[in-house]
Amino acid sequence: MSRPLIITDCDEVLLHMVSPFRDWLDETQGVDFIMQGADFANALRWKESGEPLAPAEIWEKLGGFFDTEMHRQTPIDGAIKGITTLREHADVVVLTNLTDERRDNRARQLADHGLVVEVFTNQGPKGPALQKIIEDHGASRAIFIDDLPQHHHSASETVPHVRRLHLCGEPMIAPHINCAHEAGHAHARIDCWHEALPWLLGQLDHQPDEEKP
Fold it and tell me: How far apart are CA 76 and CA 169, in angstroms?
C-alpha cells in the first residue's frame, strides 16, 4: 500500500500572510487593513481618503506582496514541527493559490523555513487540482488541509474520499472565516497546530470511502 498523501495549503496554514501583508500595506503603501467580519474586499482602505480599494487595486497589492515581500512571512506556531512529524508517516506536498510563475519562490520560501516539499500552484477552486495530484501520486489515502471553506467545498464535491481539515492559524482572521466543518464540507475545524497534529496522525490510517462528513 502506498504511503498516505497530505496536501496542505501554505498561507495561514503554514505561514502567516495577512498580518505581514497588513504591516507592509501600512508601512509602505498608504493603505489600512482592518477586518470587519469576513469582508476582505472592504478591509483595504486608502489612508488618505478612507475609500476602499477597487478589486483591481487589491489584486495589484497582493501581487506586489508576493513578488517582493514573502520574506516577511513567518511560520504559524507549531506548523513546521507538525509537518516534520507528519512526513515521518506520509508524503507531504503544498497546494497554493499563487500564479505559476511564483511557484519556485514559494518553494524556496518554504525551504528557508526548513520545509523542502513539492509545491503545486493553482488558481480558483482546489478540488480538480487535488484530484490530479492524488492520481499522479497514486495515493489511496489522502488528507487535505486549507484555511478557506470554499476549497473544502470544492474538495468535498470532487474528491469526497479525502479527509479534510479546516485550519486557519491566523488569529486576526480565523474568527471571521465561515466553518467548513459546520457546513458539512470538512471533517474537522482545528485552528491550532498543537491540537491539529494528533487529529491528523489519527487520520492517516483512515480507509477511504465515499461518505460525506
Answer: 6
**111 and 159, same domain (yes or no):** yes
> Residue 116: which domain range?
5-16+75-203
Could you read off the pLDDT of 96-138 as tens digits, one per residue?
A: 999 999 999 999 999 999 999 999 999 999 999 999 999 999 9
67 and 82 within one domain: no
Region of 138 (left: φ > 0; alpha: ψ -120 to 50; beta: rest) is left
Residues 59 and 101 in one domain: no
Judge if 99 and 178 occupy the same domain. Answer: yes
pLDDT in tens, 128-162: 999 999 999 999 899 999 999 999 999 999 999 99
Burial class of residue 49, CB neighbours in 10 A (0-12, 13-18, 19+):
exposed
